[in-house]
Design brief:
Length: about 230
């Protein structure tokens, strides 16, 4: 595919995404006015709006502003946003910082969008599972090279191969990770594009006894020393 065709395709998708935002926003506001009729509409439409915003964000060409950010505050915001969506699928959302409260160097908007997509892709993948206790953990832990920030589940065990397959969704291949299905793979593909903008590619990580997906980010003091 030529650069001109590729660029035109990107512009088309961006335009379509922007056009979708208005009706989705209207659905969300209507649901807030009559929550007793269809209480799930608000959560679903907010998730759709988030997906559109994340896609547009992932295609921006401007350089990102990287600055010290408290990972805990980002995780709390993500947890609050996805909790209604998680409850619909029987998930409990937890935050686990594992004693790691030092700021990291990142772009808050991109990181928050990325983590939201990671969390919702795992929730969606395990939505049909009838297991009594389903957990989504938004967590951080230290590694030898920095701080891992990601989403982890006791339901879905993602391998690095599954992440690599999904990565090809925004390459030339049209494949999906069997663990996630098409919808979850699309979310993960956009999250991966956001992680590339942060120069922190997604990888499979273990957190406590759970597997999940995350990015390795530098602590802020490490940037000062470089």
């Amino acid at each position: 595919m030529s650069d001109s065709v590729s660029g035109g395709t990107d512009q088309l998708f961006n335009a379509l995404a922007e056009q979708l935002k208005l009706p989705l926003l209207q659905i969300a506001r209507l649901a807030e006015l009559s929550p007793e009729v269809l209480p799930t509409i608000a959560a679903i439409s907010e998730q759709a709006l988030m997906l559109v915003d994340a896609y547009v964000l992932s295609k921006q060409q401007m350089d990102l502003l990287l600055e010290p950010v408290a990972a805990s505050s980002v995780l709390y915001d993500v947890a609050q946003f996805i909790e209604p969506f998680a409850k619909q699928s029987g998930y409990q959302v937890e935050i686990d910082l594992k004693g790691n409260s030092k700021p990291i160097i990142t772009n808050r908007q991109n990181l928050q969008a990325m983590l939201t997509l990671l969390g919702t892709s795992l929730i969606e993948a395990g939505a049909e599972d009838d297991t009594a206790e389903k957990y989504l953990v938004l967590g951080t832990h230290r590694s030898a090279r920095g701080t891992v920030v990601g989403a982890f589940s006791n339901q879905i065990s993602l391998s690095q191969q599954a992440i690599n397959l999904t990565r090809q969704l925004h390459g030339r291949a049209n494949q999906t990770a069997p663990e996630l299905g098409l919808a979850g793979s699309a979310r993960l593909a956009i999250a991966d594009m956001l992680s590339e903008r942060l120069h922190a590619p997604l990888k499979a990580y273990r957190h406590r006894s759970m597997l999940g997906i995350g990015s390795l980010l530098l602590p802020s003091k490490q940037l000062i020393l470089m």
